Amino acid sequence: MTTLIKNGTVVTAGDTFKADVLIEGEKVTLIGQNLAGEGHEVIDAEGLLLLPGGIDVHTHLDLPFGGTTCSDDFFTGHRAAAFGGTTTHIDFAIQPIGGTLRQGVGEWHHKAEGKACIDYGFHVAITDLRPEVMDEIPTLIDEGVTSLKLFMAYKGLFQVDDTTLFRAMLKAAENGMLIMVHAENGDVIAELVPKLLAEGKTDPKYHAVAHPALAEGEATGRAIALAGIAGAPLYVVHMTCQEAIEQLQLGRAKGLRVMGETCTQYMFVFEEDLARPGYEGAKFVCSPPVRQPKDAEILWKALADNTLQAVSTDHAVFWYEGGVKGRIPGKELGLGNFAKIPNGMPGIEDRMPVMWHHGVNGGRFNANRFVEITATNPAKIFGLYPRKGTIAVGSDADIVLWDPNKEHTISAETHHMNTDYNVYEGMQVKGWPARTLLRGQSIVVGTEWHGQQGGGAFLRRSPHAEVL
Ligand code: URP
Ligand code: ZN
Ligand code: ZN
Question: By residue range, what is the domain housing residue 67?
Fold first, then answer.
């Protein structure tokens, strides 16, 4: 089957140009001017931009966490992503304690099978680095899993010590794999939490007190130093604050191969939201926590000047009212104890429109940089480029027909994520997907779902991805 997208304006990380795009099967095969429509299905994109499908490299679908499970699975999460213009994501397969890395990957394949409707890959989160697990690391490359995540926080659950982190870095460096870290000082947090609870400080707002910005800055600096010693490239996930960004700037200025992402919510949700009346602040509990508006300004600047290379979501979604409404338990688990609030926020559907509106319309960066941080850099860093992350001959035809003039009010009433609240409730944005194509197939047209459960493909990623 061939499809010709006519009259659109192609936006890549490097260029903006008016062109017609021919798709044969799953690939872009020709980009040119005034291509003849005969024999093709023709989609008229007059007035629309053609953006590469968004790539969200930090998500948690169907993750068991905090005494419950994330409420979006590989169907609902994928459908929501596609409505927001994201066609690829990379989820975290978690090594079971006492188990192997492959078991974690196998479990995540099972979660996705028959459900996936966009393309996906896996990172592996190492939780238990026994000697035999160390030997297993390079074998993951054959499975198409080329990035390893280690948590410096969540003591007693996912947290690893510096020895483990450093050993993993050495192994990654030897094999062209990429280390990712959740950088917070988990030991400090584990001291602060019981102290606050003992003082009767149990409300959601104390989550931020227990996770100080300095603890994020300290862990970020430590991870960067360890990576520098190991000669390993490093990608710091969900960076939130000045203290952490400063460490990244320092590392990059020293020529260390360190990169970072932030997540959309850190530019819009703040500590004051954790203190909303009643228990509402629980909606916004995630780790690291939301910070101050002054940190958001630093993050915007870091995204614009390439201190940060990518924006993702850390989509880890729970019901606000879960068990109490007969659903799987959600945020209510932490009533009376902020440390029991399942950590995470929804966002996989909102990232592209929110970042477009406030980034591009807001004059913080141009449309090319938007494409770079939402698709191209994620593809390059994680071994998917140029198959994904751009619109070019030979690339997968993952294309979003983006209407820069379409206005939309974000709301849980209309979103597709499997939860009862939206972090950006009431936010008015201009710029919205008119149509989303995955490998040449229209999976969203306007407000209609055309995707297929099982239509998403697992992406085997390359090692030795780029360090930007
Ligand atoms: O609060 C968060 N971020 N939940 C998901 C797990 C993680 O730390 O990424
Ligand atoms: Zn994390
Ligand atoms: Zn995460």
Answer: 54-368
